[in-house]
Specification:
The chain has about 350 residues and is α/β, with parallel strands linked by helices. Helix content is about 35%, strand content about 30%. The chain binds flavin-adenine dinucleotide.
């Protein structure tokens, strides 16, 4: 048996949550190691859209970060066969390709002197001295003061603590390479309520998506609805891929094991947007570690926000909310104003 390696912070997962957390810790002079079972650059099923609050937060957290993106301003949304509500957003949505974007974040971490090891997490145990003993599938062991779980939607660390996720949304996607529009399009229909069909014009391709925003494991039925919807919008059906986003946010059970990003269930309950919350929870984990305060305190605003989103979700898909929003879509100027105001409030609040 090899010797147990001692580290201050061990991060499992080098996705956006893990690599941002690692970069922030390195910049603060905290020793950390990231372990990921993938070889980077690796892909991830994701639209790769960064709203203004996400890209601005990232720019602030990682000064000088460079990544490829396509700015999109044109927003279109539609209920059933109603007229399309279209407007130009004040702030761009940055469309990225996750394979390249995540690699840019990993390279930033490595440029701070961060160490990335290839390995697969197996289990952890709390030690009598307050440290955490982590064992990888290879048998390699680490003893750390903090274990940061950034191992994504299928987090084994979360499963070890909390069991199977209780609520997850199914997201299906199809990429059409070489077809390039210039908009974000969202379609609502009672055929797939609570859920949405959407299209993002990304870098060199269109990305079509379908979200079933409830804990529904009937994948074949949702795939069939997605196929029919693609056909309805004249999109040739190609290879469909999918992934779950865990929507139940899990509370911390120990101060030295911190769950961030998708591992902690930090994605928007209504839209599935998770990159902002991956960056935000990464920054809050760094703060908890550097200041020696519990993550539940450092991350209190995110926990509150996640609870609030459950109410917004219920309202949006309630018969009254649905009718109200559908009616409001007749007034693109009002929708633009609401959209820009929401983006501004979320981005620039103190
Ligand atoms: C179809 C779809 C579309 C989406 N579109 C958007 C969007 O447009 N905008 C947006 O903001 N969000 C979007 N999201 C959400 C977004 O993808 C996630 O919230 C985000 O990737 C979370 O980042 P993360 O670092 O927590 O997890 P991940 O990006 O999943 O990274 C987890 C990392 O952990 C590693 N790992 C996992 N298990 C282990 C293990 N046992 N041992 C070692 N390493 C491990 C993985 O290899 C991976 O690198 C979308 C999600 C889906 C499914």
């Amino acid at each position: 048996m090899s010797e147990v390696r001692q580290v201050e912070v061990l991060i499992i997962g080098a996705g956006p949550a893990g690599s941002v957390c690692g970069s922030l810790l390195k910049r603060a002079g905290v020793e950390c190691v990231i372990v990921d079972h993938a070889t980077f650059p690796r892909d991830k099923v994701c639209g790769g859209g960064l709203t203004v609050k996400a890209w601005r937060l990232l720019d602030m957290l990682l000064p000088g970060i460079k990544y490829d993106y396509r700015p999109i301003y044109r927003m279109r949304c539609q209920f059933e066969n109603d007229p399309v509500c279209e407007f130009r957003a004040e702030y761009e949505i940055r469309m990225t390709r996750r394979k390249d974007f995540d690699y840019s974040l990993v390279k930033y971490y490595q440029a701070q002197g961060g160490e990335l090891l290839k390995g697969s997490f197996a289990r952890f145990e709390q030690q009598a001295d307050g440290r955490v003993l982590v064992t990888l599938k290879s048998g390699e062991q680490f003893s750390c003061r903090y274990l940061v779980a950034a191992d994504g939607a299928n987090s084994l660390i979360r499963r070890q603590i909390h069991g199977e996720p209780k609520l997850h949304a199914l997201f299906l996607e199809q990429f059409n390479e070489g077809v390039i529009g210039d908009d974000v399009f969202v379609h609502f229909s009672s055929n797939y309520k609570p859920g949405v069909f959407y299209k993002f014009s990304s870098i060199g391709r269109e990305m079509y998506g379908f979200a079933s925003l409830e804990s529904n494991d009937d994948v074949p039925r949702h795939k069939e609805t997605f196929r029919k919807t693609l056909t309805k919008f004249g999109v040739p059906v190609d290879r469909i891929c999918g992934a779950y986003i865990p929507l139940n946010t899990v509370p911390p059970t120990a101060d030295n094991v911190i769950l961030i990003g998708d591992a902690g269930g930090f994605a928007n309950k209504l839209t599935g947007e998770g990159l902002y919350d991956a960056f935000k929870t990464a920054a809050n984990a760094k703060r908890a570690i550097v200041e020696g305060i519990p993550f539940r305190k450092a991350n209190a605003e995110e926990f509150r926000k996640m609870e609030h989103q459950v109410h917004v979700f219920k309202f949006f898909f309630s018969p009254f909310g649905w009718r109200l929003i559908r009616w409001a879509m007749r007034y693109p100027k009002v929708i633009k104003w609401l959209f820009d105001a929401k983006m501004k409030r979320e981005t620039f609040r103190a």
